[in-house]
Amino acid sequence: MTGKPLDLPAQPYTGEKARLTRAYDYLILVLALFLFIGSFHLHVALTVGDWDFWQDWKDRQWWPLITSLMMITFPAAVQAVLWPNFRLPLGATLCISCLLIGTWITRFFAYHMWNYFPINEVLPATMLPSALVLDAVLMLSNSLTVTSIFGGMAFALLFYPTNWPIFGMFHVPLEYGGAQLTVADLFGFQYIRAGTPEYLRLIERGTLRTYGQYATPLSAFCSALLCTLMYPLWWYLGTLFATTKYIKKI
């Protein structure tokens, strides 16, 4: 008997097959989540590095510039997938939350419990307020251009004010050994790290100090300008890697 095969409707799994299928889906979801946490954490560790790791490196010049510029990358790429395809305005918040989970696991267990650094010395910064604003701008505007300009600028400009209540106490001046330094600098001298002796130099030494000591506003607005350019670049990268392409059979 010849002819076209019958188009039978797909039968849903029941019983043991359904339970194993759900368990397999949950396992894949958890593994994908940890893979994303690890990849974003590795990206930040390789690009931001010590500027957002050690307390005495959280300065007024490079910390507001580099941190927000490098952290807007993954949120832009994930937003390019979740918003146009699923209308979920939580790409940036999801990325920053995953990053904070991985960062806290590393800082607490690897550097506090294992290497005995005080948790205040390796306290991570937060960008959750910036991520919430970036998601809100994308949801309200539904425009890549508007989100790139206003959301990217807000992402960078909100970084320093939202982190200052956390880290401001470590920039209080004090006198130690006949010299004036901050609490963060005292951490750097008391808990010496391995590798290159960066703790021996002034972290904030640079050309921005010539502009009347106003290093932070200049760094923040420079980061805001660069974030408006970095956001659409990684949006298109996220769209590119999330696009399925097929090769026609010859």
UniProtKB/TrEMBL annotation:
The chain crosses the membrane at residues 23-42, 62-83, 90-111, 131-160, 214-237. It comes from the Bacteria. Keywords: Membrane, Transmembrane, Transmembrane helix. The keyword NAD does not apply. The keyword Transcription does not apply. InterPro entries: NH3/CH4_mOase_suA_sf (IPR037001), NH3_CH4_mOase_A (IPR003393). This is Methane monooxygenase/ammonia monooxygenase subunit A. It comes from Methylocystis echinoides.
